[in-house]
Design brief:
Elements (H helix, E strand, L loop, with lengths): L18 E8 L9 H15 L7 E6 L2 E6 L3 H8 L5 E11 L2 H18 L4 E8 L8 H15 L4 E2 L6 E7 L3 E5 L3 E2 L10 E6 L5 H11 L2 E9 L7 H13 L8 E5 L1 H9 L6 H20 L4 E2 L12 H9 L5 E2 L7 H11 L2 H4 L21 H9 L3 H10 L2 E3 L8 E3 L12
Parallel strand pairs: 5-6, 5-7, 10-11, 10-13, 11-12, 13-14
Antiparallel strand pairs: 1-3, 1-4, 2-3, 4-8, 4-9, 7-8, 12-15, 15-16
């Protein structure tokens, strides 16, 4: 997407050449020093992907720790797409005008006048940042000048420097100046893909989608694997996993969803005498299979939604037993979160409405009345020796179904022929 040409300077006495845009303030990459340009390039690549199919031409301009976004599409659409991108601390609808004091002042007055016409406003303040040190006024002088002109044009407004209802932000560059008065929170974090690739064990509950979102915000590009209880359970959990992956893919370059039918392997573990170890043995089989799948997807870690002590299978001893079966690091972004914190976060990121839908969870299939809270490795290994685990994993991977959930029409890209799951509305 090409950058737009700078606006033509206004003639004396003319109205400023307003051009709507969006200011995207960089988050954590501000601290990256000499490597900052690599993170910025990744951030802009992800932004371009998020803008695909928006319905018009767009442009991106990079300034000092700020990305400016504009185009021939509605400003609301640009804001909505930009807020999906991990790595921006704030998203600010703005206008840009030539960097002359008259143009900046008129734009500030017009902005506050427009706000007053839209809703009641009682107080305001002006905060300027002068990136171009050749500008004839200092930042504080710009604040005073623009504020005084606003007060003259709109005497019903009062100046409140501590808690203004509207904060008019003025950012002065060499050729153009940006004015904004609305600040929306971004997702912050590191650009997706800057920390590597991970494979998320995605269930249909609250926890794993939140863990995936947290992993993305630490710069991990995520694929997903969902284990269902087929042929002993219905496909409802697959529909949920598909809808969750689609929602999560709004925040990253689309990751693939791998669906693995675990039901027969779960029954093999039960027949082998897992008993109270059944749930932990299943978890070990999942991470063993996910590790083998990760080798195919070039993932460098597994991500789970485990929270320490939340359920019997998530005690410290059981987590250690599960980790022993993995050949990759197992990351648990929610290990110290309580359930209500996880649910609140699920509502914030938009996955809660999907997670609450009913399904048949494969973890409940063949689960014993009481789960061991301290599964011993010797006992687990004894159960596993009664099976040919390498063959079990190979069979599971031979029948994996792979999809790419997204906003458009999706289709299965590998695995046995079957209908694409119908996206579940949240």
């Amino acid at each position: 997407m090409p950058e737009s040409a700078p606006p033509v300077p206004s003639a004396p006495g003319a109205r400023p050449a307003y051009s709507p845009c969006v200011l995207l303030k960089h988050g954590e990459i501000f601290l990256k020093g000499r490597n900052r340009h690599r993170f910025t390039e990744r951030l802009h690549d992800n932004l371009r992907i998020a803008l695909r199919g928006i319905g018009g031409s767009t442009w991106i301009k990079d300034t000092q720790n700020v990305t400016v976004l504009g185009g021939e599409v509605p400003l609301d659409a640009l804001v909505e797409r930009a807020r999906r991108v991990v790595g921006f601390a704030s998203v600010e609808p703005a206008v840009r005008v030539p960097s002359t004091l008259d143009d900046v002042t008129r734009a500030g007055v017009d902005a506050l006048r427009g706000l007053l016409a839209d809703r009641p406003v009682r107080s305001f303040a002006v905060r300027s940042r002068r990136r171009d040190k050749q500008f004839p006024l200092t930042s504080s002088q710009v604040d005073v000048h623009v504020g005084a002109r606003v007060k003259e044009a709109l005497p019903q407004l009062t100046v409140d420097l501590k808690r203004p209802e509207v904060l008019l932000s003025v950012e002065i560059d060499r050729k153009e100046t940006y004015l904004s008065w609305t600040r929306l929170p971004g997702l912050s974090g590191l650009p997706v893909g800057s920390s590597g690739r991970a494979l998320v064990l995605l269930s249909g509950g609250y926890d794993s989608p939140v863990a995936a979102h947290r992993a993305m915000r630490r710069g991990l590009s995520c694929d997903f694997v969902h284990f269902n209880g087929a042929p002993y359970t219905n496909p409802s959990s697959v529909y949920k996993a598909y809808a969750l992956a689609r929602e999560l893919n709004r925040c990253q370059p689309p990751g693939r969803l791998h669906v693995i039918a675990l039901g027969k392997a779960q029954k093999q573990l039960a027949v082998a005498g897992a008993g109270r170890l059944q749930v932990v043995a299943q978890r070990r089989l999942m991470v063993r299979t996910a590790s083998a799948l990760a080798a195919r997807t070039r993932a460098e870690a597994l991500v789970t939604g485990d929270s320490l002590g939340q359920v019997a299978s998530q005690t410290l001893a059981n987590m250690a037993a599960v980790d022993e079966a993995a050949s990759l690091p197992v990351l648990r972004p929610l290990v110290g979160w309580d359930k209500q914190e996880i649910i609140d976060e699920a509502h914030a990121i938009g996955t809660a409405g999907i997670s609450v839908l009913p399904d048949e969870d494969c973890c409940q299939l063949l689960a014993p009345p009481r789960v061991s809270t301290r599964a011993g490795l010797p006992q687990l290994r004894a159960v596993e020796r009664r099976l040919d685990l390498d063959e079990v994993v190979a069979v599971l991977l031979d029948h994996v179904q792979v999809m790419v959930p997204g906003d458009g029409a999706e289709q299965s890209v590998s695995g046995p022929s079957c209908a694409t799951p119908v996206p579940v509305s949240s």
